[in-house]
Design goal:
about 130 residues, Rossmann fold, 4 helices, elongated
Length: about 130
């Protein structure tokens, strides 16, 4: 199978134009385009452990939906994720086993999805105090 045939269905699902194959990687890409290309690379490389730092940053509504959909597929392929985010919307679409809150590089709180709910309600400042 050619590279184009391999990548085309993934690009279509992520709503990425095939024209991107002619461009240098990430040169002149918007934040959302970069994020979608990151997910494309993950799908092609099939890693077991996935580390995503603010993958939801710079995504418009449509890009967010396509990225989340692909992440859900990756999750069903028994991958493990470490996701850094300040916005919790992405976590509604992916099962969360463990949550850590970091401050200045140190874990200050750990928990389950209940901790996410608490942070949404009380904010990070109050969480750090408890």
């Amino acid at each position: 199978m050619s590279f184009k045939n391999l990548v085309k269905p993934i690009m279509e699902e992520l709503i990425i134009s095939m024209e991107f194959l002619r461009r240098d990687l990430n040169v002149g890409f918007s934040g959302g385009e970069r994020r979608k290309i990151e997910i494309l690379q993950l799908k092609l490389l099939e890693p077991k452990y996935i580390f995503l730092d603010e993958i939801d940053s710079g995504l418009d509504v449509d890009a967010f939906k396509s990225v989340v959909k692909m992440m859900a597929k990756l999750n069903h392929e028994n991958n493990s994720f470490i996701i850094i985010t300040h916005i919790f919307d992405i976590l509604k679409h992916i099962p969360v086993d463990q949550v850590y809150v970091l401050e200045k590089g140190k874990i200050i709180k750990e928990g389950t999805q209940e901790l996410i709910k608490k942070i949404k309600k009380e904010g990070f400042t109050d969480i750090a105090k408890t």
